[in-house]
Amino acid sequence: MKSSSPARESEIGQLLLDWHQDHPRPLPWKGKGPYETLLSEIILQQTRVEQGLPYYQRFVTLFPTINDLAKASEDEVLHAWQGLGYYSRARNLHRIARTIVEDLDGAFPQTYEAWLSLKGIGPYTAAAISSFAFGEPKAVLDGNVYRVLSRLFTPNADFFSSGGRKVYQELAQKLLPTDQAASFNQAIMNFGAMQCTPKQPDCDNCLLKMHCQAYQRSVVPMYPPAKQTILKRHRYFHYLVPVDQSGMTWIEQRTGNDIWQQLYQFPLVETLSSVHSADIQKLFLNKFQLVDWNTENTSKIYKQILSHQVIHACFHLLNGLDLPQHTGFERVKIKNLPNFAFPKVVHCYLMDYSIYLNAIHQ
DNA sequence: AATACGGGGGC
DNA sequence: GCCCCAGTATT
Fold first, then answer.
1. What is the per-residue pLDDT for A161?
2. Which among A75, A100, A182, A315 is most buried, taking Cβ atoms within 10 Å?
3. A270 is catalytic
């Protein structure tokens, strides 16, 4: 670790606070109560301010207080969330509101640990809410803070591992003046968003350049280090949805040391490169050599599906069926399959004894 | 440690 | 069109 001293750390902390004073970013949830803080922080998880803003406005209009949010049905909350993505955030937010109103008598948690114990609140959000709304001296560590710290101190630690993240958390904590936690957390995040930007940061006009290790060594573009990318290969999943005259289909259970262990799926052949339809058919005939089926019919039924999202949807469907717990093909009544839609990627229609899978794009 | 969740933005 | 994004829960 590069040399650093408490005096230097507090100087950097003060400079960030000064910068924040000179570069205010007024947002509607600033300086409001814990409810508005909670709303904004959940909405802003993985979401840009510009995208989240209209949703924040919608929520404070529809649900002005935490009591209104707790009283609302989950359906109403999800509807207000529509289009924002990561919908479990909405469910968690709703549950948190009910917990606070019903279990905590309307008293908001105040400490970092208390917030952290709620589902949907992780280390970042717990630090953000407890510091913004209650002055808890806990440093936030989000993507902006990570970038700023990385350039300032160029620590030899991998942010994307649990141990490395701890190094960054401690760096941030050391900079935080305990009596100005809220302002400091705002300051360092805004500094990352506005000054110490991912691309083309304005280093010439940066009031931290004297303290910035990356700048001093002229290696700012090298920081923060990119997440080491594990070599990704394409996997092509070809599903077959066979249906016989009696309205039965086949499914299989995944085995082996791979994703989705033990989960059920439509019969699958996997290839490492894309394959023409005729060749896929041969692969399936090979796989099903013991099964007597009508090639002419089935050839029209299978579809080549490349997205793993489809697999995910498949096991949701198939898990709902009561199946024997052993490996191999199972016969299932096609008419017993529930009427379902693959979320976002594929719609499934049941027509006569055939299933058609259609890729759709939203 | 790896994976899923979901939109929008950038190349 | 494809790749990326960095918070949280789950496995």
1. 85
2. A100
3. no
